[in-house]
Amino acid sequence: MTMIQPRAHSRKKIAGLYLVTDRALCGNRGLEEVVSLAVQGGAACVQLREKDLPTRPFVEEAKRLKALLSPLRVPLIINDRLDVALAAEADGVHIGQEDMPCDIARRLLGPNAVIGLSVETWEDVEAAELMDVDYLGVSPVFATPTKTDTKAPWGLEGLTRIRAYSSHPLVAIGGISRDNAADVILAGADCAAVVSAICAASDPRMAAADIQAEISWALKKKQRNKQHLIHP
Ligand SMILES: Cc1ncc(COP(=O)(O)OP(=O)(O)O)c(N)n1
Ligand SMILES: Cc1nc(C(=O)O)sc1CCOP(=O)(O)O
Ligand SMILES: [Mg+2]
User: Fold this and answer.
1) CA-proximal residue: ligand 1, atom 7 (nearest)
2) Phi-psi bin for 53: left (phi > 0), alpha (psi -120 to 50), beta?
3) Which domains does the chain have, with CATH numbers?
4) What is the reported pTM?
5) Tens digits of residue pLDDT in 102-149
6) Which of 48, 51, 91, 141 would bridge 75 by S-S if both were Cys, CB 3.0 to 4.6 A apart?
7) Which of 117, 94, 139, 189 is nearest to 215 (CA)?
């Protein structure tokens, strides 16, 4: 008799287009409107990234986004702040190399939480191999004016090298737009994280849809290439 093993956890999968918010770039349209339009355009995951908001408005914003995204089954990830993730019952947290250690985040958030970790150096990539994380944020793939306190960009070659080594899903971030989204997927990313090309776009829904179309095309092409390798 075949025994069906229960899954150890039921974390949401992170794939496709990943929106990272920037309140200032959303302008007077408001953050929730831009998030809503981006999801209509195809964003499959949203990270609330607030670098200047005090804790209480941060929690309130996170709860509003959770209420907006939950019925659409789009995961909400909180940048940096475990306490905000817990307070808003978000789906997970994104952690940088200077943020809360991943093992502590896992212990506090539990087995079903999505935990993403930025990797900035090859040492970070090696160390992450033993960690219980759900994806690596490849930080940054290209230089970007949206975040300037980064290490040297990995480039497409660096991304491909990480793909060959790491067993974790990869989220590419930094300088991604419709013009290079397919390139980062073909170079090894499972997911492309985007800030300005959506938040600052005059039509965030269309911007997200255009980037998502590039990602879908590249994911399908990758899948076809893989099948061709198995059944030449
Ligand atoms: C998907 C994703 N990847 C990387 C980052 C960067 O995180 P971090 O290095 O902690 O920098 P800040 O975003 O906190 O400034 C990210 N946020 N998301
Ligand atoms: C939030 C963030 N993290 C980065 C990293 O390299 O870790 S780059 C970045 C901002 C990416 O913005 P844009 O899509 O406008 O280039
Ligand atoms: Mg951080």
Assistant:
1) 96
2) beta
3) 16-230 (3.20.20.70)
4) 0.95
5) 999 999 999 999 999 999 999 999 999 999 999 999 999 999 999 999
6) 91
7) 189
